Amino acid sequence: MNVFLSIKYHADHSNRGRTEEILKILESCGVKTCCIVRDFEKWGSVQFDSRELMQITMREIRNTHLVVVELSEKGVGVGIEAGYATARGIQVITIASRDCEVSATLAGISEDVFYYTQTAELNAYFQRILR
After folding, report:
1. Is 47 exposed, middle or buried (0-12, 13-18, 19+ CB in 10 A)?
2. Helix segments in the chain, DSSP class H
3. Which residue from 98, 39, 37, 31 is spatially nearest to 64, judged by alpha carbons?
4. What was the pLDDT predicted at 3?
5. Confidence of residue 74 (pLDDT cuts 50, 70, 90)
6. Do 102 and 78 form a contact (C-beta atoms < 8 A)?
7. Which residues, in sequence order, are bridge partners of residue 40?
8. Beta bridge partner(s), residue 93
9. Which range of residues forms the domain containing residue 109?
């Protein structure tokens, strides 16, 4: 199974630790992951113009079975990715820190919404969801 992680982009990669933790947990469930900032932008060492970046993103979403939206921080790109996946008939699940609010529209297109306090809680959740 291929899983695409949609997460807020930061030029300074301030959420790299959270991103890597989530990807590691997903991969421990036996899935192949895709994260644009890690796999294509190489944490900032490779630059794309916005058109090319969105073409890569949409291609990768089309080649996935599931999009995991991490919404601890809201971002326009995250919403575009979730909407595109839904329009393509690709399942979307949303995860977010307990203190975050997931919009009704995102909740409405998500198969499930899971709130967590620590990323370690995602292990049992993904094990259950990815069976």
Report:
1. exposed
2. 16-28, 36-39, 50-62, 76-87, 104-109, 122-129
3. 31
4. 98
5. confident
6. no
7. none
8. 68, 112
9. 2-129
Nearest CA-CA partner of 66 in 100, 30, 99: 30
End-to-end CA distance of the chain: 10
Token pair for 41: 């932008």
| Contact of 61 with 81, CB cutoff 8 Å | yes
Neighbouring CB atoms inside 10 A of 25's CB total 19
pLDDT tens-digit map of 11-59: 999 999 999 999 999 999 999 999 999 999 999 999 999 999 999 999 9
Q: Which of 33, 32, 30, 40 is nearest to 9 (CA)?
A: 40
For the whole model, what pTM was predicted? 0.96
Distance CA 116, CA 105 (A): 20
Q: What is the CATH number of the domain that holds 69?
A: 3.40.50.450
Q: What six digits make up the tokens of 62?
A: 């089309």
Q: How many structural domains does the chain have? A: 1
CA-CA distance, 45 to 40, in Å (whole number)? 9
